[in-house]
Design goal:
Order of helices and strands: EEHEEHHEEEE
Distance between the termini: 19 Å
Strand order of the largest sheet: 1-8-3-5-6
CATH architecture: Sandwich
CATH class: Mainly Beta
Number of helices: 3
Length: 151
């Protein structure tokens, strides 16, 4: 086991990103806002955790290339198509809700959060890596929690 001595106290900061989505399987790139948050946090070494606050919206790290995003959209719609008969869709919906069994099944294939290392005050993302909120249901407001932890 290693012990790391530091004269800096551990820092924890968080903020929420709120977006209005437009349609199912929409990939919303949050990278620039998250990277700016890392820089503003003052954390030199640590991590940033990005988490969806929803069961039908996911967090994904992938490339922001339009044709790839079309492929990912098609993949999700083939694996869990909206037109399939889902048991969840037979459950009475609350006010403002609609049957969305497909969105829950698609969410099961993705992550609800992503953790990105921070070193020397920078989020360590690969050359093509971008951080997305993935809307799997319908147009609605969505919230993403971004937490920074480190020194």
């Amino acid at each position: 086991m290693y012990a790391v001595a530091t004269s800096r106290p551990a820092l924890f900061e968080s903020f929420t990103i709120t977006v209005q989505t437009e349609h199912s399987r929409q990939f919303i790139d949050l990278t620039d806002e998250i990277v700016a948050g890392v820089e503003e946090s003052g954390i030199a070494q640590g991590m940033v955790v990005v988490a969806s606050q929803h069961t039908t919206a996911a967090i994904a790290v992938n490339e922001h290339e339009p044709e790839l995003l079309k492929d990912l959209d098609r993949f999700l719609s083939v694996v869990a198509p909206e037109a399939h008969a889902y048991h969840h869709n037979a459950v009475p919906c609350g006010p403002g809700e609609q049957p969305n069994g497909h969105a829950h099944c698609q969410a099961l294939l993705l992550n609800t959060s992503a953790t990105i290392p921070i070193a020397e005050g920078r989020a360590l993302l690969g050359r093509y890596q971008r951080i997305f909120l993935v809307e799997l249901d319908c147009s609605r407001p969505r919230s993403v929690t971004v937490c920074f932890l480190g020194t």
